[in-house]
Each structure stands twice: as C-alpha cells, then as structure tokens.
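Chapter review. Work through the record for 21 kDa seed protein before attempting the end-of-chapter questions.
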Amino acid sequence: MKTTTASVFLLFIIFSITPSSFSFGVANTTNAPVLDSDGNELRTGTPYFVVSSIWGAGGGGLALGMPTGKPCPEVVAQRGSGDDGIPVIFSNSDSNDGVVRLSSDINIEFIPLRPKLCLTTTVWKVDDYDHSAGKWWVITDGVKGNPGANTLTSWFRIEKVGDLDYTFKYCPAVCGTCPALCNEIVRDSDGEMIRLALSTSHGWPFYFKKVETSAMEIQQICLIVSEVFWEVTLSSFLFGVANATNEPVLDIDGNEVQTGTPYYVVSLIWGAGGGGLALGRPSGNKCPEVVTQRRSGDNGIPVIFSNSDSNDGVVRLSSDINIEFIPLRPKLCRTTTVWKVSDYDHSAGKWWVITDGVKGNPGANTLTSWFRIEKVSDIGYNFKYCPTVCGTCPALCNEIGKDFDGEMVRFALSTGHGWPFYFKKVGKSAMEIQQQSFCMKYKPTRHSKTEKPAAPSPCHPSTASLLPSSCSHRSSALINYDGSCRHKPSESLILIFPTHFIFISEFFYLF
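Structure tokens for 21 kDa seed protein:
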C-alpha cells in the first residue's frame, strides 16, 4: 500500500512539472534569435544573402526575377549554385526589437545591386492565386510595416530546421481576426525560372550570409549606378547635350540608322527583358493592332523610320519620327501599322502605344504619330513621346516603358525611365518584305487544264529573288505565315460552306 501511494505521488509530480517545462521550452524556442552562417544573431536592417543549404542542384541565393509576359512586379527567384543572389533586409512587426526571432512576423525586402527596373517595391508578399499554375507565388510589391489586415500578405516567418539552417513560412499573426493561409515555402518552377511558392510540404532550407556592405552603402551604390545609367548616360553628359541632339542613331553594328530601311527593335535587356517589338491583337479589340513585345530570342517584326524632315535620310536623336511596322504576313486589320499614342485608357490608367497613326504631314492633325529616340548607352536607346511638330499644341512629354495589360506585354507612356532597345538591320529591303507579304496573301487566278496564264504571277518562281531561298526552285512554293517556305499539295482541298469557300492549302482572304 505504501509502495502504491508513493508511485501515484511520483507520477503526480512528473506530470505537474513536465507540461510547465515543455511550455517554457516552447516559449524560449519561439523567442530564440535566428543565427547567420557565422553563428551571430540576425539583425533587422542589416543585409544578408539568403542561400540554399543544399549545394549544387539545390541552387544558389535568392534574387529578383522578371518573368516573360509580366515583368512587373518582380518575383522572388533563385540563382544558380555559386551565386549568392541579391541581399535582403528584415524588419520585425515589433519595431522595438532589433533581433530577428523564430516564428515572429517579419517583412523581407530585397536591396537591389542595380537600378530598379520596376516602379513597384521589393518587399516580399504572397501573390493572388495563380489558377493556371495552381500556385500561391511569392512576389514583390509588398508593404513594409503597418502590421494589420491591409498588409496581411506581406508578413512571413522563419523556422529552424538545423543548427544554422532555416525555412520560410507564411502564417501571419498580425491580424487576429483575419483568415489566412499557413504554409511553408518551397522552390518551384514556373517553366521559365526557379521561384518560391507556398507548399503543403516541408519548406526549402536556407542559410543567411551577412553582407559586408551595409544596406545604406548598397542603396547609395545603387543610386549612383542608377543616376549614371539613366541620367548621365541618357544625356551623354550635360556637356554634350547640344551636340547629342543632332547625333545619328546607330544600329547594333555601329552604323547610322537610315530612314526607309527595315530594322528589328529588340530589348537591350536579355532573357527576362524579352525580345523584339511586334504587332499584337488584344482580345475584344483586335483592330487597330497594338505595339507589343515578343519573347526573348524572337526579334519581332521590322519597322521603318521616317523623319519629319523628309530631306534627311538619317534617323537622329531627339528628332520627330514616324515608326511603321513592315509586317511579314498579310495585314489582318485595314488600319495602318504606323505607331501612335491612343486615347487615354481610363480602366487601365494608361496612354498605350498602338497603330493606325498617320505617316508624314507633321502638324496638329498628326500630333499623336510622332516619336523620338533617346540614347542610353553606346548602342542602347529608348523611345519618347514628346512631339514638336506643332509649336502651339499642348502635348504629353513622356518616355515609353513596358507594361502589362493582363494579356500581353505592351508599351505605354510612363513617368519613369523608358525601356532600352537596340536596332538590328534586316537583310531584306522594305520593298522585298512588302512583296513577300503580298505573296503570302496573293491567290492566283485558276485556269483550265488547257489554258495557260497570260503572264507569271508576282509570286511565281520567275520572281525567285523575292521568295525564300528554299522556295525559289518550286513552282508549287507558298510562303507560311512567318515568312518561311512550304509546298502546295497537288490538289487544293476545298471545304464548302453556305457562304464561304475555304482553300485549306492557301491563304485566301475575303474582304
């Protein structure tokens, strides 16, 4: 009996002490500081690289990424192994605590090492649900500070997985009454780059490597680089502005850009910066076509330039010019392919650059069709809308930047810096390109088996110099939508509908 009483008393003591000890341990763990790779406490406002704890195939450090099709806001991406990425700084929801602690709400902000390409913030946030990918991506353009319902998507946590290894988690506690997701964060691919996204599994491990340069010094360096890149270079140093105005624009080979000669206009920023400019047709408003951008590696559609001074055959800086696409395929709209600034789009808050402008006749009636080219580097240029063809006309004066209309990358007037491009001369002349486009649309007259055509068609191989080289030896040659060659079958397949004859093997437009 004494033994039983003693055992019960001992169990009572154990179960009385253990819960309080466990709770005390959890509290200490929750408030424990996060440590960097040197074993020192992480400090708010101090820059750190966030690098994968798994080397090699596990990748490198976190950085800003610009997906094709929607470059802004930038996203949280991962660099390759050996690249530490871009530094971040942390901010606590409790601004009185200068130490970053486990399981506490924090803001995370990139401190870019180069000029910002987007006007959005570099503070992390969880994006709206991506239905096409089935993901909650981590992007930028979050809000720093002001913990509460309005900033819920901008708060993250750090959790411990090893001595100096940690994962990120999205499980905000800054609004006690707000429903919120609570998930760890992993690496994922969007088909173009490695990015961070919420996950139902374990988070990806990272370590924090302190940057020797302070956040203020990094920002100062970035500011200096930005000023040099955008302001000093753009004006070719103030000393040379007067002369720079009359300087010729140069193509990528260093030759003067000539009026009437076709050039591709290609993004100076490679990869996520996209490719060349082209015609686009937005859903619901297909005509007139708009100025859009193709993906990286695609040079787009050629343009030709025309000066307001028709006696000058050289395109010059800061001079009024028309810009006109020379399509590589038949036109789908009856409007012109000359650039112009559209009416104000109230729903988007944008002045878009579209087509259907007027070529020549500088003056009040053509004001929206005149653009300028400004220099940003040796062969880098941007476009500006600031017409001087009418001295008494009020007009906007803005550089032209990339923007996204929810469907495609387009170009619009901007209060920021213009997007940089270079000009690549096309091998064919404008006349040859137009002839090719005509041949793609041209449908020759059909003759009986015994009757011979009176003369060769403009697209017959007798005009072989105008056809792609792979087509010039075939009488049955046709030109594809993209300008490449295909060969006509021996018989045209005809589908008969009540009001249409559709020739499947040829382009046949009924206008």
